[in-house]
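Observation: inputs received (chain + pyridoxal-5'-phosphate).
Thought: call the complex predictor directly.
Action: predict_structure
Action Input:
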Amino acid sequence: MSDDGFQPGEEFARAMDARDPLAGFRDRFCIPKMKSGEEGVYLCGHSLGLQPKSAASYLEQELRDWANLGVEGHFHAMNPWMPYHRLLTQQTAELVGAEAEEVVVMNSLTVNLHLMMASFYRPSQRRHRIVIERGAFPSDQYAVKSQIRFHGFEPAISLIELAAREGESCIRGEDITELIERDGESVALILLGGVNYATGQVFDMAEITKAGHRKGCVVAFDLAHAAGNIPLELHDWGPDFAVWCSYKYLNGGPGCVGGCFVHARHADWKDLPRFAGWWGHEEKIRFQMGPEFHAMAGAEGWQVSNPPILALAPLRASMEIFSEAGMERLRAKSVSLTNYMEFLLRQNDSAKFSLITPCEPERRGAQLSIRLTDLGRGICDRLAAEGVIGDWREPDTFRVAAVPLYNSYADVFRFVEKFTAALR
Ligand SMILES: Cc1ncc(COP(=O)(O)O)c(C=O)c1O
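Observation:
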């Protein structure tokens, strides 16, 4: 961790907040309150981001147009619903470092993962394996295993799980490239989290993509914990596809519509096998209702159904705020907040916990994962009762994230103070 001149007392946190240029954004979010009416310390943006206060007005607009216009809203709503999802395209593209044609907001993460694998996981007898992280998010494990079986292969043979070395928590970059170098010719798909959900480790996506492509593998990322958390340059890094959800760092609301990236090199590959639906059909002829599917160019060609407008509306509110704040400034504050949290935690010489997230800022995002080997989830429950919200991941990990849009240095200070008391 870099020593940013942090000091242990509460005045330091207050002083940092006073000179934080992004501090005002906190007021734009609904901060959950404790029973006392006082604002709690919400450190769970890695699981469900907070509600922008402006979300309600975005949603109300669409409810009003639906009430007043019925089906006519598709063309005559203030924001016509037919192209409504495109209101999010430019901001989404900027957020993930992509061209507009490479992104689309649709469905939810695991559904998009399956849609992408339908096109990009095309196993053969020679090349049928999928590489994931050991202990990848369960939905990803289920999705890839079911795809392997769907194609008549066996996960016991076709799934490679990248693991951390004995006694370590995070996977070493050199172990990833070595595995790709060694086994790459039998690998059809490399699918890693951009940020690992359990440890908070950021993977070197550019390097992994390069190594995978050198061996002829399809390379993809699950960006559930990366989108809105760390800067992304998907177009330049060059993965074939990526998927993410919008309810964590993107504050789109519970179960909000996810996002999908398909690299421009696949944009016009229209005969790529896919699970098609009318919303991915060439827009100009969609309403001719013809029997043959003609895919739209780019990521939009993977759409299946018409999008849920009422779920997209709150996401627009949040994406507006992201554009205003700017990812560069957000990342700078995020690095500082997380370093500060680590600094305060390390003041505490208790042997009852350890940090499993990498120390280097470039190898982590906002999340810190704290291993509590003996104390168990009781600490998490106790902190929740005191208004400090993190979350517990079995068997031994307490996850917290200070989100730069709405968390303050004072939040971090209060968390560590209560955490330290709970340890005792
Ligand atoms: C890394 C990761 N992948 C996949 C998912 C599943 O997302 P969804 O329920 O939107 O399909 C999650 C959900 O938290 C996740 O954290």
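Thought: report the result.
Final Answer: The chain has a mean pLDDT of 96. The pocket of pyridoxal-5'-phosphate is lined by residues 108-110, 137, 139-140, 193, 197, 222, 224-225, 245, 258 (CB under 6 Å).
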